[in-house]
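Bumping with the actual sequence this time:
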Amino acid sequence: MFTLPAVLEYLIVGAAAALLYGLCAFGMLGALQQAGYGSGRFFAWFNRKGNMARSRLVLLAFLIALSAAVLGVCFSFLGDAAGYIALLPVPLFVGIYCLADRRALKVPFTGTRRACRIYVIHVLLLFILSAGLCIAGAALAYYPLAQHPLAEHVRYILLALVPLLHPFVLAAANALEKPFSSAANKKYIARAREKLAGAPCVKVGITGSFGKTSVKNFLAAILSERWRVFATPASYNTPLGIAKAAEKEDLSQYDFFLAEMGARHRGDVAELCALVQPDHCILTGVCPQHLETFGSLEAVVAAKGEIFAGTKKGGFAVVGQDENTAALDPEKQGLVCVRVGEHGECGALNIKCGASGTDFTLALGIVQAEVHTKLLGAHNARNIALAAALAYKLGMSKEEILAGIGKIDYVPHRLQPYVSNGVTILDDAYNANVVGAEAALGVLRLFEGRKFVVTPGLVELGVLEEKENFALGEKLAGLDRVILVGATLVLAVKRGYLSAGGEEEKLTVVPSLKAAEELLSRELSEGDAVLFLNDLPDIYN
């Protein structure tokens, strides 16, 4: 059994299996990347009830085991060759799995150096596992089961276990790679921190559960009326993202550096503040978002409040008024607090929303001005007020602020409207939250004609996920058409929709965005409006 030719055979079969099973890794590797390379978040996704990725792996393992047993027995008359024949369907099953497991991610998978290292380590671990299972199967066939005439013909059946162990092997590869990426990232971030510390520009940190990217873009448009402004691109709101943005730019050419700051755990905002060292900050507001990692709303509030301790003393802290930010006191951290809201020093008052834009009164201290913006929704008026409040405190005139507001454009995938074949499409696909979802549905109802919504539900809500998706479903009742995408979160949405009196014949559950688009192509007509709410799909479905 353990002759040199036999051992070479097991190693060759193990290597072939590792390369073949490695093809099954790309979907899960994309999900791991989507989870920020956090194994905890990855397994939270993988173990979610109804996750089709898990179901497909179980089915793959069953088919491989079944075919190995059946073919091994049927071709037993060929002797040792039966064991090889039993493996022939495996490439077919793997190919079918790869076709079925294709998924679009919130952020497209990127073949970074880190991802490539994880993949290579993953394949090496698969080789060790596969070769070990080959040897174990042969040992069983030649020793405990040696008296069974068919044992040696199914000696490779244990390879069917590999798909079941796939996510654990990937997590192990991620853990083994982490020291390499951590060391490289620390050096990269340290270099960016030094560069930012020496830059003459004023730094502004922007955080919150919602509206960060919008406020950043709005502030950049307003400040640009007087100063040279650099804002971190897209949603570069992690230490690496901000470091990358800072490294690429000659910061001496700018008067302001605007940094969006995201967070999934306590300490994330503090870490970003240590990198950027903001002179001023904006907290847009707080809602139940990322509870999957924070654990509670109180933890979210505390995490977002870290921006005050990380901002230089004497700076302005612009705070959006809501019930969750009311308890935060930036003045205890030596900052000048500027509350923005109906009862604050600044705010957007008398908001009137329409299908062609939004009108409101902008209050900046004792100064007031009437504003019209093509942006849709009351939340955008409030976001503009947050940006304008800081600009006002920095000394910009009313005229300069209004001129900047006039140049504000739509933020991609944040309730971005466009018309196609007479159909109004509202693209609110990026990371919808409880507050943003309600605002988007309010905008949808402003349009005449039939109203459609396409959504996979709301994600990263932890213990509130069931409750908030049920509530979302209730809000969808009364629309002309509801298309739910996925197999997990949509169950709570559907229950909420039906409980609120929604008509079941107007609701359809589809497995993918492609299926939703095909359905829309058959049903939409001129004058209709359709809202794409949240990413479609993402790692959660």
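The tokens above came from a reply further down the thread. The mean pLDDT is 86.
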